[in-house]
Amino acid sequence: MVQDIVCGMEVDETDSRAIMKEFAGQRFYFCSVECKLLFSRDPLLYISQSVETGEMTKDIVCGMEMGRQQTFSSLKYHGRWYYFCSESCTREFQRNPQRYLGQ
Ligand SMILES: [Zn+2]
Ligand SMILES: [Zn+2]
């Protein structure tokens, strides 16, 4: 299984009906034509989000600011990446993401 870089859904890349697009020598798989379209429109938007380093980011659970290399973990949720300083913050977010994304 691979992850749809747009929405974060798991995609079976061995399925002959899998929606795939090659970009910069890499293969990307999508759950739907819509996701592929979104990606095709602005691939760098999605790629840079997943490989960005060095930039400051914020743990939305505890509010701590940290560099991307200092993060304990990252989670993709609804197509966006979230970074956490510790295992407890990661778990807390997984338990109730809406609480932190609500505001
Ligand atoms: Zn998708
Ligand atoms: Zn934290």
From the spread of the alpha carbons, the general shape counts as elongated
Could you say which small molecules are bound to this protein? zinc ion
Q: Level of helix content?
A: 25-40%
Largest sheet: 2 strands, antiparallel
Order of helices and strands: EEEEHHEEEEHH
- What is the count of structural domains? 2
In terms of DSSP E residues, the strand content is 25-35%
What does this structure look like?
The chain has 103 residues and is an alpha+beta fold. The protein has two domains: 1-51, no CATH class; 53-103, no CATH class. It has helices at residues 33-41, 43-51, 87-95, 97-101; strands at residues 2-3, 10-11, 19-23, 26-30, 56-58, 65-67, 73-77, 80-84. It is elongated, with a radius of gyration of 15 Å. One zinc ion binds at residues 59, 61-62, 64, 84-86, 89.
Identify the notable features of this structure and list them briefly.
103 residues, alpha+beta, 2 domains, two-stranded antiparallel sheet, two-stranded antiparallel ribbon, 4 helices, 31% helix, binds zinc ion
Task: Provide a concise account of the structure shown.
This protein is an alpha+beta fold.
Question: Helices and strands in order, then pairings?
Answer:
Layout: E1 2-3, E2 10-11, E3 19-23, E4 26-30, H1 33-41, H2 43-51, E5 56-58, E6 65-67, E7 73-77, E8 80-84, H3 87-95, H4 97-101
Antiparallel strand pairs: 1-2, 3-4, 5-6, 7-8
The structure holds zinc ion (ZN) (2 copies).
